[in-house]
Amino acid sequence: METNDIVLTNSTGIHTDSVGETVIGYMLMFARLLHRYRWSQRDRVWDRPNWNEPHTLEGSSLCVVGLGTLGVAVAERASALGMDVSGVKRTVEPVRCVDRVYPPDELETAIADSHFVALAVPLIDETRRLIGKRELETMRQGAYLINVSRGRVVDQDALVEALREEDIAGAALDVFETEPLPSESPLWEMETSS
């Protein structure tokens, strides 16, 4: 066996703070309706929501799918804001700042009543198109999907349909099936996705 002067490293943990804060930012945007205010400003429309539409994150529920380094960073921040945090993990064992941990075969149960579903899983065979038509239909009607993992974890066509049919309230997408997002993608024009 030959030895080389090559050092292999990885960057585990380097993005935990930025991804954790990004997910909290997305949830705050949706809860406080900041995305709607931005569109209203652009369109020069004075639009005030009903007094009970904007809400705080405290008391809202979040399911983090994938409780590795990134998922735990999201869970810690959400828990600190008083959210009810559940998660999906390959091994069902307690995770700090997570109230309930579900195995992957209980994904639909885990996401069914959550106000927010955040995806933080790696892209492997088991997670490819993990969120499709069935899972989106399982989510509560006013729920938001947040994807900070990989684009191919979500069936993008099914997501577009769910957004058009208002099966879910919206989506915040940090990643897409094809990047850069093609100019003809309907996601560019959807006001409830970012």
Features:
alpha/beta, 13% strand, 6 helices, 6-stranded parallel beta sheet, 194 residues, single chain
User: Termini separation (Å)?
Assistant: 50 Å
Shape: globular
Spell out the helices and strands N to C: HHEHEEHEHEHE
How much strand content do the residues show? 5-15%
**Which class of secondary structure composition applies to the elements?**
alpha/beta
The count of strands amounts to 6
- So how many helices? 6
Overall mean pLDDT score? 93
Uncertain regions spanning at least 5 consecutive residues: none
Strand order of the largest sheet: 3-2-1-4-5-6
Q: Cα-atom Rg, whole angstroms?
A: 18 Å
Query: What oligomerization state is this entry in?
Result: single chain
In percent, how helical is the residue content?
A: 25-40%
Largest sheet: 6 strands, parallel
Q: Can you describe this structure?
A:
By secondary structure, the protein is α/β, with parallel strands linked by helices. It is 30% helix and 13% strand. The protein has a six-stranded parallel sheet. Strand 1 (61-65), helix 3 and strand 2 (84-88) form a beta-alpha-beta unit. Helix 1 crosses helix 3.
Secondary structure elements and pairings:
Elements: H1 16-31, H2 34-43, E1 61-65, H3 69-80, E2 84-88, E3 100-102, H4 107-111, E4 116-119, H5 133-138, E5 144-147, H6 156-164, E6 170-173
Parallel strand pairs: 1-2, 1-4, 2-3, 4-5, 5-6
Helix pairs in contact: 1-3
